[in-house]
């Protein structure tokens, strides 16, 4: 095989690995049915943390942020910090920035800022979620 053919033979593989190339396929996210609850960042609600407004990812939680906490099993399945999530029946795009206590499985916790009433109203429900991995 000539040197020219060897170089040309490698071009499609090289192009396929470039993010801007038409052959590039970003990692797929997922879709799953989970239990959803809601949480706040009020003093006394995060007994295992000194600062209830600091998420497990290190983000400073503020009312109005669209942030989720996820159970350990979902975190291991790709719902890692920075993953974008869409929740059936809940408006907008949410971002994973927190983790739940290890006892929970197949569960997300939707951040409701300091609005305890909104979190109580949200309650517990089964929802379908879709997600994309972090950039």
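^ Assign residues to that structure.
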């Amino acid at each position: 095989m000539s040197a020219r053919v060897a170089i040309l033979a490698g071009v499609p593989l090289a192009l396929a690995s470039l993010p801007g190339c038409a052959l590039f396929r970003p990692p797929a996210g997922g879709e799953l049915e989970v239990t959803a609850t809601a949480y706040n960042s009020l003093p006394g609600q995060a007994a295992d943390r000194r600062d209830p407004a600091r998420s497990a990812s290190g983000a400073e939680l503020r009312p109005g942020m669209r942030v989720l906490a996820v159970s350990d099993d979902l975190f291991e399945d790709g719902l890692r910090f920075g993953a974008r999530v869409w929740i059936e029946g809940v408006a907008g795009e949410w971002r994973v920035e927190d983790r739940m206590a290890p006892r929970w499985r197949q569960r997300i916790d939707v951040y409701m800022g300091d609005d305890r009433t909104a979190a109580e109203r949200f309650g517990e429900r089964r929802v379908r979620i879709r997600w994309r991995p972090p950039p």
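Confidence is low (pLDDT under 50) at residues 1-26.
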